[in-house]
Amino acid sequence: MAFRVFENLEMLKFFRLNSIRNRMLSGFLFLTAIILAVGIVSVDTFGRINRIADLQRLINQLQVHTLNLIKTDNDFFDFESTNEKYFQTRTSRFLNTRDSLQSIVQNEMTMTLSHVEEEGYPLIDQLNKIDSIFNNYNVKFKELEELVFIRGFKDYGLEGEMRLHAHALEVRPYSLEVLLLRRHEKDFLLRHDTFYCQKFMEASNKFMSILNATRSTNPQFKAHLKAYSNIFRKRVDLEKKIGLGSTSGLRNVLNQLTFSFGRQFSALNEISDTLYASLQKRASLFYILMIFGAILFSLLSGIWISKQLSAPIARLSKIADAVASDSSIAGGLTLSNAAYEIEVLTNAYVTLIDQRNKQLREIKEQSVLLKLHYDKVDKLNHELDNFLYSTAHDLRSPLASLSGLVGLMKIENKQDDFIPYLEMMKRSIERQEDFISQIVSYSKNKKLDIHPELIDLKELAENIFQDNEFIAEGTHIQKYVYYKNDAPFFSDRSRVQIIFNNLISNGIRYADSNKADQFIQLKIHTTETEAHIEYTDNGVGIASEHVDKIFNMFYRANLQSKGSGLGLFILKEAVIKLNGSVTVESKERKGTTFVIALKNLIKPEEIRESLIKDDSHQKQLIEKFANVTVN
């Protein structure tokens, strides 16, 4: 009897534990499936984000190269329209650059369209519009280039023919009539007003009438007058096609297409940003739902498992109490097996919960990284929008000024009042070139990787001083460079050059001309860990309310600032890129001090192992500048 009761008890415990195992196994498998689903969706989401980031990169590259092509076109019309060599050979470095950029833009457009079609992004129509605008722009540019070549310059084209016939007419006694014709011609070319065309034709007809009334007039003289008038009419028609102003002719068409580029690229970026935001929102919602479901499931399964485990233990306890008086049964009845199973199941559950918590922590960490990545991309896009808007705004005014000055230069050639116009044109060009240089520096600092190399900071500083030697404001400034080199210094040369160039050019540009002892001083000390650079000048200084804002993009301390507001912003960006730091102290009318610390990117032992053994030139440089013994 006792043996049969004990046998039934063991069978009950066995079946009960098997039932619990099966149910717990099902629960664990379900929880594992949830975790796997979260992992798969996470991988897919990050893949989608990377593909959208690649798309944004392609769009940005396409936009930058398109702007460079438009800038090259403007340079062509500004410089080559008065270049005799171009009209002799019809070849131009600007046209060669333009052909290269056109090929790059077309290839990038093909890559972007292919990427969009593969991913199924709703950007096909927008890209096709940009492609259509680009093709139309190229056609109109070719038409305008053809008209400029036909128009000619000096002894070439229509202008050359007009000058030939005009010079043939400049004989006595008709000097006044010819002078009147030339005056109306120049008035038209200068002011682009068709009123002077009518005045020219009236003066031409009157002149012809005088010649017809004079029997002794040479027929060739009349032919020159007639040819001069006909070519002038052709020139007028040609100028109308080119555009008498920026709002007419092919010039207006190209301007409108340029504005269309801006609108289309802006719309394209908005759609790309919308796709990115939508994907991030869906991913966040999915993670929240999965986390909530997993937590809810864990709570419910924990309650259920606790009930399942406590019930058999209570029943086993009652049975044990019922047979406690029978020693044979008590000897065979132990709770050691039940306790072991409970312990194993508990340990397995705890392990699974730990794994789940680890997965949740990883998901949260990845969500934080995703948010940081999104904020960074959003910040970069915002900066790029502001940068491009300011660039377009600042480029438009100098180019318009330059275009007007070039026109005046063509008309007022070989006259005394030509010199002021040249000076004005020169200042406009210098301002534009400086601004473009700042744009290139900013782009390089943002996109290029860091390439450490051995740098002689003293030589670099002295070269930059020499590059700025002939700037008018810098002729009276004393330059001092104090250099202490305790170790070879390795860093990215282009970024260090950007830092020095902005410091020195700003010091020259904002020198105080009222001071007799103007100076710029650089103290450089290189060690195994860093380069300590202290820049000091006694220029106009910076007002205290502006000091903490001078590193902001496009910030100008006053309306009389000569720069674009990018120099110090790019300087700080370059310092940050090199893991350095920069501080500034300045007093108005006293001067300014910048203190910069740049990390030495290669340690001495790394120099010996990676550079010296294969590069004798590096050995010589290191021995020269740092007195390092090479084994």
Please, could you describe this protein's structure?
The structure is a single chain. With 631 residues, this protein is α+β, with helices and mostly antiparallel strands. Among the domains are: 150-245; 449-626, Histidine kinase-like ATPase, C-terminal domain (Heat Shock Protein 90), CATH 3.30.565.10. Helix content is 73%, strand content 7%. It has helices at 2-79, 84-89, 93-119, 124-151, 157-169, 175-191, 195-213, 219-242, 249-322, 327-332, 336-411, 418-447, 457-467, 493-509, 544-547, 567-577, 604-610, 616-626; strands at 452-454, 478-485, 490-492, 519-526, 530-537, 581-587, 591-599. A five-stranded mixed sheet has the order 2-4-5-7-6, covered by helices on one side. A two-stranded antiparallel sheet has the order 1-3. Helix 1 runs antiparallel to helix 3 and helix 1 (2-79) packs antiparallel against helix 9 (249-322). The radius of gyration is 40 Å and the shape is flat. Residues 624-631 have low confidence and may be disordered.
Question: H/E element string?
Answer: HHHHHHHHHHHHEHEEHEEHHEEHH
Provide the gyration radius in Å: 40 Å
Secondary structure category: alpha+beta
Residues in helix, %: over 70%
Largest sheet: 5 strands, mixed
Low-pLDDT regions: 624-631
Per CATH, which architecture of the domain at 449-626?
A: 2-Layer Sandwich
Q: Could you say what the CATH topology of the domain at 449-626 is called?
A: Heat Shock Protein 90
The CATH fourth-level homologous superfamily of the domain at 449-626: Histidine kinase-like ATPase, C-terminal domain
Principal-axis shape equals flat
